[in-house]
Design a protein that fits this description.
387 residues, alpha+beta, Butyryl-CoA Dehydrogenase, subunit A, domain 2, Butyryl-CoA Dehydrogenase, subunit A, domain 3, 3 domains, four-stranded antiparallel β-sheet, 45% helix, 14% strand
Amino acid sequence: MELTYTDAQRAFRDEVRSWMRDNVPATPLPSFDASREGFEAHRAWEAKLNEGRWGMVTWPDAYGGRGLDLIRWLIFEEEYYGARAPLRVNQNGIFLLGPTLMEFGTEQQKARYLPRMATGEEIWAQAWSEPQAGSDLAAVRAKARREGDEYVLSGHKIWSSRAVYADMAFGLFRTDPDSERHHGLSLILFPLDAPGVTRQAIHQINGEHGFAELFLDEVRVPAENILGAEGQGWKICMATAGFERGLMLRSPARYQVAVRALVALAQSRGDDLDPVLRARVAEAAMGAEAYALSIYSTASRLMAGGRIGAEASTNKIFWSELDIALHRTALDILGDRAELHPGASAAPDAGNWLDGYLFSLAGPIYAGTNEIQRNIIAERMLGMPRK
């Protein structure tokens, strides 16, 4: 495809770049997974973004956005990552639940939740996985029982991202007790400070806690908190997964910026860089560019009325494996010094490559394991039999 920009799009890029230059914190914010302090610092950044109406530029103005198309969102992301702006603590809300609300939510739900998402007033966690239902989401056992104007939630969720400090969660529950697999499931929104909700932080190897277990004991929420119709949860979650795997969660800018850093690292070695490593750098650069063009194509198709389908699984596999290869190449260029702390005197160029590599290893697992994605591609795109 040929990627060209209009004068209006180039002017928008200049506007984003100017605002980021004036507002991105000079010092990186503390991690939002390490402490309440870091989490609240990122919440304040979300509010700052909202002041410039940058919370989610594709949303209507009434919900805190600018009503812009997906191409401008991609431009915004390129400038955002290029400015080294803070990571989005509310990514579960703005990138996953937000687009899902746009498609399936009532007008009341949109008015209630989207503006608070845009300001960072409400930070969201995703409560899908369970100890018995990780990659196999259809095996969810958590239940939601209808009692009058309320749902009563019971069950156990795990690997709920941002749930340690988040305000709200969107969870998948079995509303038909006699149902099996993907039938009888519903998506329900619930506050994490409601009576009956117990959070237990999951400590990662780096000491941070980006995830939590959630224990739900007869948690009561208004029946209006259901998203879509009862029993429609699987369909809605697959739409959310499409945003997660195929478009919103991992914008191309993330990898384009990383590749620029990788190229700079390789160039710092001059002619001494092993030709094999030089080829791997070129391969990573081509991969990042190919992914960007693919996402621009997807965005154009959606703007023309198309939908994200099973092909989102190919995107998910591509970006997760690209991330690993990119970081592994950086570590191989650094050699022994790759394992040093970034602040060590002997590692002036080590940066955060090691941390980035360790995080990249989770890519083939979250948003649906790559093994599951390959099954989806085989069955739904290629029409291959299950056995």
